[in-house]
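Think of the structure tokens as a kind of shorthand, similar to the way a musician reads notation: each symbol stands for something richer, in this case the local conformation of the backbone. In the example below we present two proteins back to back. Begin with the first one, reading the sequence and then the tokens, and try to describe in your own words what changes along the chain.
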Amino acid sequence: MDSKAVLSRINTENIEFVDFRIVDLLGRQHHVTVPAFAVDEDTFANGIAFDGSSLVGYKGIEESDMVAIPDLASAYIDPFVAAKTLNIVCNIHNPDGTPYARDPRGIALRAEAYLQKLGIATDAYFGPESEFFLFDHVRYASGPSGSFFHIDSEEAYWNTGKEEKNLGYKVPNKGGYFPVQPTDSQADIRNEMCTLLSEAGLKVERHHHEVATAGQGEINFRFDTLTRTADHLLLFKYIVRNVAAKHGKTATFMPKPIVGDNGSGMHVHQSLFDGDTPLFYEKGGYGNLSEMALFYIGGILHHAPALIALTNPSTNSYKRLVPGYEAPVNLVFSKGNRSAAIRIPVAAVTPKACRIEFRTPDSTANPYLAFTAMLMAGLDGIRRKLDPRELGFGPIDKNIYDMSPAEKADIMSAPGSLAEALAALERDCDFLMAGDVFTPEVIAAWIDLKRGELEQVERTVNPKEYELYYDL
């Protein structure tokens, strides 16, 4: 879509405002809104100036002038603003017009260009399954006089004893997969989310209640190319959060907001295509996978300890990545096996639907950086012919959770903490910098930001410590 077409749309659809959206290094969106009458072709060509020093992970105050350049193909109508508003995703440029190296969306675009330059494929497709919770109430605080969090949900099993209305049909601990109404009390809210997602341009495939109690849900939308899927994931989170707020609820994509029940992951389906030809399919191969697909898997599993610093970048991520909660901590691949870090879907799969599913990531990741990092690891595997079978990454076609310690002795596990993952990224980051996709500056900035978060958490007194140590 060119500028004339967008301006025509603004006029014919009576758009009152245009909202320009950017994303910081951590993955949070920010926006600036311009009256539609002030938007013209120069606006689209020259962009919107903003202060880069006010965004996490961007420039210092002494060099803070930056420009948001709209990607007009990303435009959609905002369903949550009273005045009719057109939202447009932007890329970040320096004042001299060059792309800003730390712009996450720019990094994703460089990865797609690098893929085509290698001649391995024309497109990389990604399809995330981003789980979330809808709570009715959340409170939290952290300070010198106290530290706590408190959540509640009308679905939660811990509410069956309240002296209020009829409190039957609660979701048991780990018992929330696919129940019908009235146990699934949030079907109408997810329906509304799906409607708005579709109106905004996403192709919704299905939705359902997830395993955990207290309102865990999942909505799946159709895969797309790397950068577009990252755009769609941020739009998805925006719509989920705002629909929840409309209904007096709050949505969270935290990996582990509830102690003792399943967490929320972001399983990421991936495949490579050459035009319309799928490159991951080979009939008769393991899981009907091609040699290229196996090498791609080898790259992801080989680089997984470093990769996970970008796909699971919060301290909370590692409270999900523990055995016993269907968490994919085992760095192996397998067909149809959800206890492996990489699952090969085999049910109702056509050649074009043949793909791999990396199950370890979660939605605290910046999708532009996480998807790019996965692609770069996979491409490194293809270039170096990293066969996962020869590297000891499987396949393992049994429930790994039920294996004995002796049987699991040779199976690598995901890092046990953010500190471990960051250390691995520091050691193993060259694969990310191939083709100048990531830069040393970006990786260093990411590690510094995340170590700062880690330090904050480590220095905060935990209520559990009072329980364990107060009377010693």
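Once you have a description of the first chain, move to the second and do the same.
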Amino acid sequence: MAQRLAMEYVNATMQMTEFQLNQFLLTADTSYISHRVKILGAGEQEIVLEEAGGEEVHLSFERKGGIYIGSLSCRVVNPHLINAVRKLFFMYKGTGTVNRIYKELTMMYYYEGGSVRRISEVRPGGTKLIYQHKYSLVEMMSIYKLQTVEQEIEQERRKINRLLDLRNTCQHEEAIREVDEQLKVATYRLFQLEA
């Protein structure tokens, strides 16, 4: 198995409440990792996670209402620090790109709300898509329950029926041509909706 050299977080964000932030700070210190908090202006904070060997990760948190929005862009090499940041990103449903860097390739993971949405393998010769998120069961059920398209289809069918009834009662060629044009537009729209 390939040895991971580093992990890189690109424009990563996560959200947490003040309670969750305090809980994280209580559990952040281990025998390998320590932290310090820098208070910046306007309620912003910067948390610095430091590994015993000296490698640091800086997390900026901006307070918006009762929520802290954290942003992270860094490259981490130390395995203990990699693990701490990975747990933080996963626990607080991070969004952004995480690159797992190996000697000959980079695996790019795109996360949204803590879930992997896409995985790509990047090599010097090009990029290959490994995984693309498909709809989850919950997402599919919510789409299935949406009936706006079905309602629009029903409206188009009623409109077509009215136009057909009108066409059957028309006696002038010009009125029939006008109804036929409206039927053409309505049937095309019905075809689009059903597709």
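Compare your description with these statements about the second chain. The mean pLDDT is 86.
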